[in-house]
Specification:
- The protein is an alpha+beta fold and 859 residues long.
- The chain has four domains: 1-54 and 248-398, no CATH class; 63-241, no CATH class; 458-531 and 715-858, no CATH class; 546-708, no CATH class.
- Strands 15, 16, 17, 18, 19, 20, 21, 22, 23 and 24 form a ten-stranded mixed sheet that branches.
- α2 (15-53) packs across α10 (310-349), α8 (248-295) runs antiparallel to α15 (492-530) and α13 packs antiparallel against α24 (773-811).
- The two termini are 28 Å apart.
- Its main location: membrane.
- One of its GO terms (cellular component) is plasma membrane.
Length: 859
């Protein structure tokens, strides 16, 4: 009981000094809880949607393509309309209806602007059915009654200011058509962002499937008293084993699993960054309690002198940490819910609508947040508590606030050097690896060991590094700069721990910057060496969607072009002479593709691969199966017949673009695949006529203006798009790492604030002998700057080492250029100085306001 009272008295006596540590706990726990609430809410939203959109039993083609394959072919798999009559004849069926649904469409308004979702969610076109009444209701107008009418969902109508009577154009690989909005339907549950349009059944069949006797699936409703499982069995008995049948629960579960895998990746990625912030927060907590213990050395000595045992002193500090963890975690859980709501609003602004009505806070979320925050805080305080327990009763005779021993020990130096050396060895071996899988494991081990090594050896490095930085940065400020240097060197443990917190975040920033810049530089070099085409046309979302015939014709008819190349992906099973069969994606293209994309061959000529009944293979595939030019392969085209093709060339796989590709002429593929089953173009390439590059580019843009879902890019555009995509990804990562850096800045603020308290008497004496307030504030700011630069120097150096090693592994995949983004590295280093200045504002202001006489009288 005495220990608890003492702990509470100390905690509330130093509540100001504990505040920033509590904020660090709060931020880390809030990020964890916010991530869990946000992803749970998304799961709830999709679960509700999937639960109401499925019928009692759904019948679909047994070999229905996945979303990726359907996107690539542009046509969903279908079942014959005759199956509907068979289903209606089954026992337990109250009603059955044919449904059409396609996600390979683009819908544009009268101004030719895409009215689809902008958040990555699909645009879905289909027929209006009774099953849709489970999830939607017509709130304005009426459902489509013929080929000239279309209905849209209310969210899409609001977003794009659509109203009844407006004309929309629907574009699909089967053709495009115009229709006027006849009605608007609202979702009864939250629509996460998909754009949905409805047609009448006959129009949907003709325009989306190009056939009037087929559906994509059947919706079956059970009679009263018939369970979904029983209905599934009776329908299956009627149809035989030709179709895929799912109950409402099974269909919902399948959709939930597909969406859940995506959400899990996002959740664990965000939790990873929360873990980094927690790691940084540990340094802040350790520093806080270490300094508090040092400042209370005399007080602890007195407690020991009057009979307190080591265990009681130790327990007293741990109880303070427990209280800090409880308060910080409670606030963090509440803040996490707020953060989740903020993320939902942010996603809403990007097009993914999430309703706060579905806000889901599972009981496990606050429990995880509380346990995590408390455990981390208590563990971080363990070493300072243990140090407090070792304080001797003789410490009661010391001056208050005098730390007993602040030097970095020999054991620390040796251990840190060994760990750093082991990490460096791991990184070196990773860079020398022949296989990416082996190298990745060595890279991971090297990163962890080198990071721990730098953390351990940081206080040892502090002396040398701070002296060098001070010679460059602080000496110009005269005596004030030298005092700032000595203050930073006074306690290497504290300087090392404070710098390490900043080091972790900046090391990751530097590593990712090097990797991102190297990827862009490598891809750019590869494009310069291999891509001979002047222009590339593809889906604007770069998702490999099929190119509709109208856009193909528009590009082919565009003026000022030397040639246009069609490029398709053809699925096939390839059997080699050794008797092994593999599923492959063959690149069927016009022979001009050999000019559009230069490929080195290790055997034969690429032109031969575009001859009659010929193809090429990559050298990795050739080595695996012992192939040489002239060998014959049995190719079973998924959409057609079986062919025997001769290997005309073996291409080098020492590339990034089209690595492992197998080429053949489109004309060869057309001999074995019926015209109505030939897949559409995935990409198109074009080369301008001599001296007509600018005119050709302008003409292509104009020719494809009616198809806003596609982009035409020259090589400069393509490189910039690549750079922008990697830049956007890095910006997201940097944004998530910002949390760890904020916590690290709080650590610098807390270290300085407690350091000012620790040096109260010293500051008073300096003020008494003539140090001005301005000089005092400058001294503290300079101390903060040199600590921040120390952490930045270690972090950037470590991160560049990680990034360079990672690039060597990427070189195994063809990304061979190492590029250090010096402008970014220099900007981050200089920015660290401003971070130091900012962190010192509060402590410097407090020190400047200190009463000189009271400071001198402090005991």
């Amino acid at each position: 009981m005495t220990v608890l009272k003492t702990s509470m008295r100390n905690f509330f006596a130093h509540k100001g000094r504990m505040a920033l540590s509590a904020v660090a706990v709060l931020l880390s726990v809030a990020f964890v809880c916010g991530t869990l609430v946000f992803t749970d809410t998304m799961n709830t939203t999709f679960d509700k949607l999937f639960a109401v959109t499925s019928s009692d039993v759904t019948v679909s083609p047994k070999n229905a393509d996945g979303e990726e394959d359907a996107s690539r072919s542009g046509k969903p798999k279908t079942l014959p309309a005759g199956a509907l009559q068979q289903v209606r004849a089954a026992d337990g069926v109250q009603s059955a209806e044919g449904a059409v649904s396609s996600m390979s469409v683009t819908v544009v308004d009268a101004d030719n602007k895409n009215v689809g979702a902008t958040s990555g969610a699909p645009t879905i076109a289909g027929n209006w059915t009774k099953n849709d009444l489970r999830s939607m209701e017509v709130t304005s107008g009426h459902p489509p009654r013929g080929p000239t009418e279309i209905m849209v969902d209310a969210d899409t109508a609001d977003k794009h200011h659509l109203k009844i009577g407006d004309e929309l154009r629907t574009i699909a690989v089967t053709g495009d058509f115009k229709a006027k909005i006849s009605g608007i339907a609202s979702f009864k549950v939250t629509n996460p962002g998909a754009a949905v349009v409805f047609l009448d059944t006959r129009t949907a069949q003709q325009q989306l499937l190009d056939r009037a006797d087929a559906f994509t699936h059947l919706n079956v409703t059970a009679t009263a008293g018939t369970s979904d499982e029983t209905l599934k069995q009776t329908v299956a008995a009627e149809l035989g084993g030709s179709y895929k049948l799912q109950t409402q629960a099974e269909a919902a579960e399948a959709n939930e699993d597909e969406m859940g895998s995506f959400l899990d990746v996002m959740k664990y990625a965000m939790l990873g960054f929360a873990g980094i912030a927690l790691l940084v927060g540990i340094f802040l907590i350790i520093n806080t309690f270490s300094m508090l213990v040092a400042q209370r050395t005399r007080e602890i000595g007195l407690m020991r002198a009057i009979g307190s045992s080591r265990k009681q002193v130790n327990r007293s500090v741990l109880v303070e940490a427990l209280m800090l963890g409880v308060i910080g975690s409670l606030a963090g859980v509440a803040a996490g819910v707020g953060l989740a709501v903020g993320l939902m609003k942010l996603m809403g602004s990007m097009g993914m609508k999430l309703s706060t009505d579905d806000l889901t806070v599972n009981w496990t979320t606050p429990v995880i947040g509380m346990v995590l925050g408390i455990v981390v805080t208590v563990l971080a305080a363990y070493l300072p508590a243990r140090r407090a327990g070792k304080v001797s009763p003789m410490a009661a005779l010391r001056d208050a606030g005098t730390p007993a021993d602040t030097k970095a020990g020999v054991v620390r130096a040796v251990l840190g050097t060994l760990l750093t050396g082991a990490g460096a060895a791991g990184l070196y071996l990773a860079a020398q690896a022949d296989k990416a899988s082996e190298g990745s494991l060595l890279l991971g081990g090297g990163v962890v060991l080198s990071l721990i090594g730098f953390v351990v050896v940081g206080p040892v490095l502090a002396g040398a590094v701070v002296r060098v930085l001070s010679a460059v940065v602080l000496r110009i400020f005269g005596p004030v700069g030298r005092m700032a240097e000595r203050n930073a060197l006074r306690n290497p443990r504290r300087t090392g721990a404070t710098g390490a917190a900043l080091m972790i975040g900046l090391a990751l920033v530097a590593c990712l910057s090097v990797v991102g810049s190297s990827m862009v530089a490598s891809a750019t070099e590869e494009l310069d060496k291999t891509v001979g085409a002047d222009f590339i046309m593809q889906s604007g979302s770069n998702d490999g969607s099929a190119i509709v015939p109208g856009a193909v014709k528009a590009m082919q008819n565009s003026p000022h072009l030397d040639h246009v190349t069609n490029y398709k992906i053809v699925d096939a099973k390839v059997t080699t002479p050794d008797g092994k069969t593999t599923s492959e994606e063959l690149s069927a293209a016009d022979p001009s593709y050999a000019d559009d994309l230069s490929r080195e061959t290790v055997s034969g000529e690429l032109a031969a691969a575009y001859g009659k009944d010929a193809m090429s293979v990559g050298d990795i595939y050739a080595k695996r199966h012992g192939l040489k030019t002239g060998d014959e392969l049995t190719v079973d085209f998924a959409a057609g017949r079986t062919a025997t093709l001769k290997i005309g060339a073996i291409t080098s796989d020492d590339v990034t673009i089209d690595k492992g590709a197998m080429y053949l002429d489109i004309a060869t593929a057309a001999q074995y695949i019926p015209a109505d089953r030939m897949p559409p173009n995935m990409l198109m390439f074009a080369k301008a006529a001599d001296g007509k590059t600018d005119q050709a580019y302008s003409a292509l843009k104009k020719s494809l203006a009616d198809y806003p879902q596609y982009t035409v890019q020259d090589q400069t555009d393509f490189k910039q798009t690549l750079k922008d995509q990697i830049g956007q990804l890095l910006n997201i990562v940097y944004g998530l790492l910002a949390l760890a850096i904020i916590v690290a800045v709080l650590g610098v603020v807390n270290t300085l604030a407690l350091s000012v308290v620790e040096r109260t008497r010293e500051i008073g004496l300096m003020r008494a002998i003539g140090l001005s307030r301005r000089q005092l504030r400058r001294m503290i700011r300079l101390e903060s700057v040199v600590i921040a630069l120390f952490g930045a120097l270690l972090g950037l150096g470590l991160g560049m080492g990680w990034g360079a090693t990672a690039q060597r592994l990427l070189a195994l995949e063809g990304l061979e250029v190492l590029e250090i983004p010096w402008p970014t590295i220099i900007a981050v280093f200089l920015g660290s100085a401003f971070v130091g200045l900012f962190a010192a504002l509060g402590p410097a202001f407090r020190a400047g306001r200190m009463n000189v006489l009271n400071a001198i009288a402090t005991d």
